[in-house]
Amino acid sequence: MPVLVMKFGGTSVATLDRIRRAAKRVGVEVAKGYDVIVIVSAMSGKTNELVGWVGETSALYDAREYDSVVSSGENVTAGLMALTLQEMDIPARSWQGWQVPVQTTAAHSSARIEDIPPENINAKFADGMRVAVVAGFQGVSPEGRITTLGRGGSDTTAVAFAAAFDAERCDIYTDVDGVYTTDPRVSPKARKLDKISFEEMLELASLGAKVLQTRSVELAMRYKVKLRVLSSFEEQSDDAGTLVCDEEEIMESNVVAGVAFSRDEAKMTLVSVADRPGIAAAIFGALSEGGVNVDMIVQNISEEGRTDMTWSCPVDQVARAEKAMEEAKASGAINFAEMIADTDVAKVSVVGIGMRSHTGVAAKMFDVLSAESINIQVITTSEIKISVLINRKYMELAVQALHDAFELDKAA
Ligand code: ASP
Ligand code: MG
Fold it and tell me: What is the rounded distance in angstroms from the CA atom of residue 58 to the CA atom of residue 68?
């Protein structure tokens, strides 16, 4: 029988009532003839609570025990979902990650899935079981310890199961009814997209759109898993939600598919560093070793052999970056006159595969921002996106103005 993967996020399993509602959705697909793999998150708020308990118990906690505690929220919902399905006379059982087994790396709290041997679950399907309920977000390391996949990781569990079982589709049930051109809370004109390409979704997810964990989109793209994002709170038709798919499957699309933003950015500058070969390697090597995820980089023009180097990184990594730079300075690897951190910036990006064939998107974006008197501090581009760093207080305005200017409220 064809396999379908259905993933229910925290809000979709937040109460016993909602679990019953989700189970009914599963029942509809079982009745159509699918064998279903259900991936569940913990009840909403549960993972945060568990993370809090770990931190309160031990400041410098053992990451293996963190994973053992934090993965437990999903175990509860997996068992409750299986019981609910059994009450509906649907043959179902729950599986924790290690039972499948979901084999991962040993990188506790951010492990990667290496393999999901399908034999155990397939044997049960062959025996008449119709639904395998799997606890998302967790796996087992080569040492046999419980691992977790990073926050939001049950999306990745779902896509990995869809790939491993050659599922017809992977449906992600969440509290929004699809992927939008931008966050509707920022621009009321945001429009739900019927389809979006893997590449665009990957950019939007990594630029701050929070519907899907970035790694799940990477995986879906690699294994060509058809992903659908839809709401568990509405009655669903077969074409509900947003389909994330190969760009060949999308006939018409706007040049710009969406506007993404991220509030939690910082801009850091080293003033007057020696402009000589190897200086960028020394600075960014030290930042990388210090665990700083550098995003945008600008090297200013140099005067008399000195230059300024600017980069952006997540705002909560500023302290780490400062420490790494002070240490590199003390060791003599680099030299600078001053270090400036601006923690009052936001990143706004426009994304669209249409940019590959259309020129003028960057010019238009800069025009729109200039018309609103918004100063651009740093710019970066890739084949399908343009990002700017601006003062955070103009972020909403920038998103709205760009959404209007690129007419994202209208379908292509
Ligand atoms: N429960 C985990 C979290 O809150 C994993 C997930 O829901 O995707 O991050
Ligand atoms: Mg999520």
Answer: 14
